[in-house]
Design brief:
alpha/beta, Rossmann fold, 2 domains, 7-stranded parallel β-sheet, 14 helices, 34% helix
Length: 437
């Protein structure tokens, strides 16, 4: 439906309560995938959606599921949405809460990394919709807390990502516990053979909706690659963050260790930032995202756990501090900017060892990304070494006042103590000088 963008929501077969909510949210025009998918789902069809994040696919299944559940209310779980990560599950849950406000439809997000008691209590009290990551869902199934015998709607979101993360056996195990008579919606950004095989096993004569090529990048993202030495990446990142006109910025690293080191370096140079990666607790990750969305922290450092499914308005820049291991991940990373029709900037810092990945990215996206070069200058000696750690500064001129530098090392604020000067105050320290009698 090439003219889908010209439609209005009130031209789709949506009921009045949902149209009022959309009007209150000031949503008038559906995205292409919403315009195509919503009528087919409401007609009782299975759906195969090939769409990246940022295309509006969450509303494409939320709205019809809410409408169908409203036809007859029962306090039993009738819709199951499976997502690969906690963050995406939380976001989908927020969408159901937003679109279903005041309709009396209850939903719950269940995922690992937090205690299960609150999630289990909500399920026992009765929910219509469960949004879950596969691992925690199976745990609650095994305990007899979750029962899926009355599921009418199944959604697999980011199916390719779930398979990449090794959830294939969990998915088949969950699907075997569901009624065969159901409507299934299957969304994936890419369609490798493993995803095609899964789709064929769980979908029945689906309508295929494809809104973007799986190798495409948004036209309104200004992309750039800056070649530099690995040891110069820290100061190049600092330069970009201090000189670019920016709003919210996501800095992607390849590893958790790199993410922590980047945060330490930025804070040392008085650039506040927050971090999410797999070693962070769910509470810490949610707090980081809340602070980032609110703008109280304008720089988010993340591993690829955040590359998909996180829809945050106001991200003006994505910076690839390190290139991802797979070329496809580049597309998902830079897709965090230029949301909702806005423009965005994607800057990639590339060392010699990463040029092969860059070539694969350019081949996948069928484009040549503009390049620049950066040559670093020696950083202040003795403060920040190339391995990415703070070192104690020796006072160059005894007797003169020296500025003490504070920095945040994870959750604990510490001070750099100059050699030969005051010792840090601590209840355990004693004055070793003997008192004169």
């Amino acid at each position: 439906m090439n003219g889908a963008g010209m439609l209005k929501f009130n031209e789709l077969p949506l009921i009045e309560p949902l149209l009022r909510i959309l009007e209150d949210l000031q949503y008038s025009t559906p995205t292409p995938i919403q315009a195509e998918a919503i009528p087919y789902i409401l007609d009782g069809n299975d759906l195969l959606g090939i769409a990246q994040t940022g295309t509006g696919k969450t509303a494409a299944f939320c709205l019809p599921i809410l409408q169908e559940l409203l036809k007859h209310k029962t306090r039993s779980t009738r819709a199951l949405i499976l997502a690969p990560t906690r963050e995406l599950a939380s976001q989908i849950h927020e969408s159901f809460e937003t679109y279903g406000k005041g309709l009396g439809i209850k939903s719950v997000a269940i995922f690992g990394g937090v205690g299960q008691s609150t999630q289990a209590r909500a399920i026992k009290e009765g929910v219509d919709i469960i949004i879950a990551t596969p691992g925690r869902l199976i745990d609650l199934q095994d305990q007899g807390i979750v029962k899926l015998g009355k599921i009418e709607f199944l959604v697999l979101d980011e199916a390719d990502r779930m398979l990449d993360m090794g959830f294939v056996d969990d998915l088949y195990r969950i699907i075997q516990t569901l009624p065969k008579e159901r409507r299934t919606m299957f969304f994936s950004a890419t369609m490798p053979p493993s995803v095609i095989g899964l789709a064929r096993k769980i979908l029945t004569r689906p309508k295929r909706v494809e809104v973007t090529k799986n190798s495409s990048t948004a036209m309104n993202i200004d992309q750039k690659v800056i070649f530099c030495k690995r040891e110069d990446k820290f100061q190049l990142l600092k330069k970009i963050l201090k000189e670019e006109e920016r709003e919210l910025v996501i800095v992607f690293t390849k590893t958790k260790n790199s993410a922590d080191k980047v945060k330490q370096y930025l804070l040392f140079h008085r650039i506040p930032s927050t971090v999410i990666h797999g070693d962070k607790s769910q509470v810490d990750r949610e707090r980081a995202l809340v602070n980032f969305k609110a703008g109280s922290m304008k720089v988010l450092i993340a591993t690829d756990i955040a590359a998909r499914g996180i829809d945050i308005q106001g991200v003006s820049h994505v910076i690839n501090y390190e290139l991802p291991m797979e070329a496809e991940s580049y597309i998902h990373r830079i897709g965090r900017t230029a949301r909702a029709g806005k423009n965005g900037v994607a800057i990639t810092l590339c060392e010699d060892a990463e040029k092969l990945v860059l070539e694969k990215i350019e081949a996948l996206t069928n484009q040549k990304i503009p390049t620049e070069k950066f040559k670093g200058v020696p950083e202040q000696s003795g403060i920040w070494n190339q391995e990415g750690s703070i070192r104690v500064v020796k006072a160059p001129t005894p007797g003169k006042s020296q500025e003490k530098t504070g920095y945040l090392d994870h959750s604990k604020r510490q001070k750099v103590v100059e050699e030969g000067k005051a010792k840090p105050k601590h209840p355990g320290f004693r004055n070793n000088k003997k008192k004169k009698k």
